[in-house]
Design brief:
Layout: H1 3-12, H2 39-51, H3 59-72, H4 102-118, H5 125-139, H6 159-165, H7 173-182, H8 187-194, E1 201-203, H9 208-212, H10 220-229, E2 240-242, H11 254-260, H12 267-274, H13 278-289, H14 291-305
Antiparallel strand pairs: 1-2
Helix pairs in contact: 2-4, 2-5, 3-4, 3-5, 8-13, 8-14, 11-13, 12-13, 13-14
């Protein structure tokens, strides 16, 4: 979808528009200190249970991606967790969200169930997802940060909105930057948060056009590798490839190194390093040279992402079941 359509939809639709500054001011790291002091321990224990039997499963990148998809539409309010019913199609079932990992949804459900036993009716699904996003990054050797809490779960989840607003894998750098600006994030946040692709995976269909159109900007070695793995010219929706072809199970800065070598499979990753925006190109270079800097900035950008469009105070609700409104 064009960026003008997205802006029009945000400004003039009947769906809620985001409040970027005031609502985030009531978030705090110690929000649950009195009512549910063990919240982070309980959530982390559910992650450990999920990961110990299969330490390299899709749960880790899937949970991080789930958090981004949640925050980008309606803000960080757990709206992507809602399951469609007879009355409406939710964000979760928008075509662009159908590839979200089921294991990630399952992890949120398990954490919610455990917290309902520990401190019923206290912790929101949106806070659970924000904490898990931090924990999964650290699980694969990435940075950690203090998670602000106090989000309430939203009361709107609309498939059409998600389909209109979520970035596509073939968008230009200009379109990506404007999309991030619409939710209160910067070009630096765009580049930094794209670093999450160091542990990401994508379906072959998302970069098929680059292969079929013989895009010569794609690294030859990577091109031959994915052609061997993906069933081109047929498109099998179940086949995936690592976005970081070198260290896909470690959160590091190798993704930015690979971008500068033309190894970015998605066009939206490739344009970070070779697109028209000079600042994004320079930042890719800096991160490729300095992992410590990338980790520091990633933590900061994740905190900023976690503030987007949050509901606090009397807005929204605390869901009993993350998959349905109360």
């Amino acid at each position: 979808m064009g960026i003008l359509i997205k802006i029009f939809f945000l400004l003039f639709s009947s769906l809620s528009f985001y409040s970027f500054v005031n609502s985030a001011s009531t978030l705090s790291v110690g929000f649950y200190n009195e009512r549910c002091p063990q919240v982070e321990r309980v959530i982390h224990e559910e992650l450990v249970k999920k990961m110990i039997p299969f330490p390299f499963n899709i749960t880790i990148p899937g949970t991080l991606r789930l958090f981004f998809h949640d925050c980008y539409v309606q803000g960080c309010d757990g709206s992507v967790l809602i399951t469609s019913d007879e009355s409406h199609d939710s964000e979760k079932h928008a075509p662009i969200n159908l590839s979200l990992a089921g294991d990630a949804f399952d992890l949120v459900d398990k954490a919610k169930a455990a917290l309902e036993k520990e401190c019923p009716g206290v912790v929101s699904c949106s806070d659970i997802l924000a904490i898990l996003a931090r924990d999964v990054v650290h699980w694969w050797q990435g940075p950690t940060w203090e998670v602000e809490k106090g989000r309430r779960d939203g009361l709107i989840s609309n498939a059409t909105e998600a389909e209109l607003l979520m970035p596509r894998s073939n968008e230009s750098i200009t379109s990506l930057i404007r999309g991030f600006e619409m939710i209160g994030l910067t070009t630096a946040d765009l580049v930094t948060l794209s670093g999450a692709h160091t542990i990401g995976f994508t379906h072959c269909a998302e970069f098929a056009s680059r292969i079929l159109q013989n895009d010569t900007t794609l690294n030859t070695e990577v091109r031959e590798k994915v052609i061997g793995a993906c069933p081109f010219p047929e498109i099998d929706e179940t086949v995936v490839q690592a976005l970081d072809q070198d260290t896909e199970f470690t959160f590091d800065n190798k993704f930015f190194k690979s971008l500068r070598q033309g190894k970015g499979l998605l066009l939206t990753d490739h344009v970070l390093a070779f697109g028209d925006d000079e600042y994004s190109r320079k930042l890719v270079y800096r991160y490729s040279q300095d992992q410590k800097l990338f980790f520091q900035e990633f933590a900061k950008s994740m905190v900023k992402l976690g503030r987007v469009g949050v509901k606090t105070g009397s807005d929204g609700e605390i869901r009993k079941d993350c998959r349905k409104f109360n």
